[in-house]
Amino acid sequence: MTSPLIGGAELLERAVGYTLGTLRLVTPEALSRPTPCRSWDLAALLRHMIDSLAALHEAVDSGHVGLAPAPPTADLAADLVTRLKDQACQLIGAWTSAPRSTVSIADRQLTGAIVSCAGAVEVAVHGWDVARACGADRPLPGELAEQLLHLAGLFVTDHDRPERFAAPVPTSGAAQPGDRLMAFLGRIP
Q: CB atoms < 10 A from the CB of 76, how many?
C-alpha cells in the first residue's frame, strides 16, 4: 500500500466525500443529540467542523493557519449543513487544484501533505460522529479507514489524552479498520 502521506489531497477528498454523505442524516431534531465527542451535542460538533474546514481552507489558500476562533454560526440544521457542504466543496477544489507544499501553524512549519492528511482524519472521524449522533451506523469505507488508522498514530499521542481524545477503547483482533480507528481515538465502535 502506498503511504497515505503521498496523496494527502486525494485522501482528504475521500474523507470529505464520506462526510458529505453523512450530512444528509442531519435534521433539526438531531441538533441537541449527544455525539461520541465528549460533552458536545450535534450542533456543537457541526460548528467545530465548520471551524476545522475553514482552517484547512486557510492553510491551502495562504499557507498559514491562524489560531483565532471563527465567527459564530447559526444553529439551524439546514444552515449548518449547507455551510459545511459549501465549505467542503470549496476546500476540495482548493487542495486539488493548488496543493500547498508547506503550511505554518503558530511557530511550526508543516508539509501540506501532513496538514491535508490530518484534515482527512478529522473530517472522516467527525463524519462518523455525525452519523452516530443521528442514530445511523455508517462505517468508514475499509481502505479509507485503513489509511486513516495508519495516520492517526502520527497525530494523536498520549500527550493528547485525556484532554483532546479519550483513552483508546479495546477492540478484537478481527475488528474492521474503521472500528479500530474509532477505538484508537477513544470512541466506542
A: 12
Predicted local confidence at residue 109, as pLDDT: 92
What pLDDT sits at residue 144? 97
* Contact indicator for 146, 61 with CB cutoff of 8 Å: no
For residue 96 the three cell numbers come to 486539488
Q: Are 50 and 87 in contact (CB under 8 A)?
A: yes
Identify any residues that bridge with 16 across adjacent strands, giving them in sequence order.
none
Average pLDDT rounded to a whole number, residues 10-32: 96
Q: Could you give the domains of the chain?
A: 8-153 (1.20.120.450)
Q: What is the pLDDT of residue 2?
A: 46
CB atoms within 10 A of CB 185: 26
With cut-offs at 50, 70 and 90, classify the pLDDT of residue 6: low
Task: Round to whole Å and give the CA distance between 126 and 151.
Answer: 16
The position carrying cell 477492540 is: 171
User: Do residues 120 and 141 make contact, with C-beta atoms less than 8 angstroms apart?
Assistant: no
pTM here is 0.91
Q: Tell me the pLDDT of the chain averaged across its residues.
A: 89
Determine the Cα–Cα distance for residues 42 and 44; give it in Å rounded to an integer. 5
Strand partners for 64: 104
In terms of phi and psi (left: phi > 0; alpha: psi -120 to 50; beta: otherwise), the region of 39 is left
Q: How far lies 18's CA from each of 51, 76, 101, 117, 131, in Å?
A: 18, 22, 25, 15, 11
